[in-house]
Amino acid sequence: MKPIINDITTSFENPPEFVELKELNPNRNYAYPQGFAEKQKSFYKIDPLKLALSPDESFNVISDVAKKQPGWKIIGMDKNKRSIEAVAITKFCRFKDDIVIEVRQGKEKQVEVHMRSKSRLGKGDLGANFKRINHFFDQIRSFLN
Known about the structure:
The chain has helices at about 20-25, 35-45, 55-65, 130-145; strands spanning about 5-10, 50, 70-80, 85-90, 95-105, 110-120. The protein is an alpha+beta fold. The chain has one domain (about 5-145): Kinase associated domain 1, KA1 (TATA-Binding Protein, 2-Layer Sandwich).
């Protein structure tokens, strides 16, 4: 049985941060619920995507792939911070989920792509946010091959 969580992240210690969406929706809580970390760890295995590109090259690839996502509305792209914020509108019931993607310098010469997907409604997401992150990372891998 899937855990009742609606916010999935690739980093528990430093979850990608919503900035523009938070400004647009000041009454919505965008803090990552730390109680979700253990539930997510026990059920979903998701790590940051590691790329052997420069941070700027990685951001360009991520941007290109993000722009092509059906149902995504890009809210903001910050080249300096290498972050993207978007809203995904689900086919079923037209629910809105918030997305943030950050390109970070990893260890050695690797770049890490961190992502967070958070449902606006409900306590659980039936795995939708986890699937969204995995699907996006798979699309980046395909784009690079």
